[in-house]
């Protein structure tokens, strides 16, 4: 099989009708150019040039081969430019997967700015409401709260995006109606309600940092759930429908607290410095589109909580 540099030497000799001039333009020796042509002719099984002491002419076969060689070199240059442009300007389809509530709060508000910075990246945002297998549901980027997804699929690469406090919120109307709990024990066998994720199993618990309320390793309190939904928890919490788990650094939660529409509850029993991760697949070569997404959201989302620049 002939090599690209053989073809390049052949085209230069054909253009200049001179081995020495082709060598000068290539920055090679005339001997090197001559060897390229000899190897190419040997590979092809036919002569490309008629040589004399005064002139170098293409053979009939050489003229036909020149057209194809020039076409191939143009395609090779275009391919090299395309690869270079992909590294210069990230492009392609980028599949982003995560829980609907997390995507709506953390990704969607920044999509316009991301597209403006990286117009050649086409985002495919896939919201899920239950834990999925990354093998059967492919993605480039997955969002996760805590280490669970990474522990379940250890082949994934985990990058800590930010840390945040994760706690409990309720509306003033709800607390006026049901009372303000001061200890997790007051939630047990009470009339308090929770707004859980629809696809959690079981799906009627409130996460609270006190294993003593259940006696188990998983710190939850089981409550009645008047509504089970995969999205809209903040709106339902504002309406007084129940207690809600949420990150205190989510923009919508911050605004609702600042406006007095919801208030923190049981702050002494919150999870402090809970990690939010971005997961990617292990690859041999870095992907510019993935790197662009990670850098952009490290910059955007990291300012919400305590940014964690270094990957785990």
From TrEMBL:
<dbReference type="InterPro" id="IPR058163">
    <property type="entry name" value="LysR-type_TF_proteobact-type"/>
</dbReference>
<keyword id="KW-0804">Transcription</keyword>
<dbReference type="GO" id="GO:0006351">
    <property type="term" value="P:DNA-templated transcription"/>
</dbReference>
<dbReference type="InterPro" id="IPR036388">
    <property type="entry name" value="WH-like_DNA-bd_sf"/>
</dbReference>
<comment type="similarity">
    <text>Belongs to the LysR transcriptional regulatory family.</text>
</comment>
<keyword id="KW-0805">Transcription regulation</keyword>
<dbReference type="InterPro" id="IPR036390">
    <property type="entry name" value="WH_DNA-bd_sf"/>
</dbReference>
<feature type="domain" description="HTH lysR-type">
    <location>
        <begin position="2"/>
        <end position="59"/>
    </location>
</feature>
<dbReference type="GO" id="GO:0003700">
    <property type="term" value="F:DNA-binding transcription factor activity"/>
</dbReference>
<protein>
    <submittedName>
        <fullName>LysR family transcriptional regulator</fullName>
    </submittedName>
</protein>
<dbReference type="InterPro" id="IPR005119">
    <property type="entry name" value="LysR_subst-bd"/>
</dbReference>
<dbReference type="Pfam" id="PF03466">
    <property type="entry name" value="LysR_substrate"/>
</dbReference>
<dbReference type="InterPro" id="IPR000847">
    <property type="entry name" value="LysR_HTH_N"/>
</dbReference>
<keyword id="KW-0238">DNA-binding</keyword>
<dbReference type="Pfam" id="PF00126">
    <property type="entry name" value="HTH_1"/>
</dbReference>
<dbReference type="GO" id="GO:0043565">
    <property type="term" value="F:sequence-specific DNA binding"/>
</dbReference>
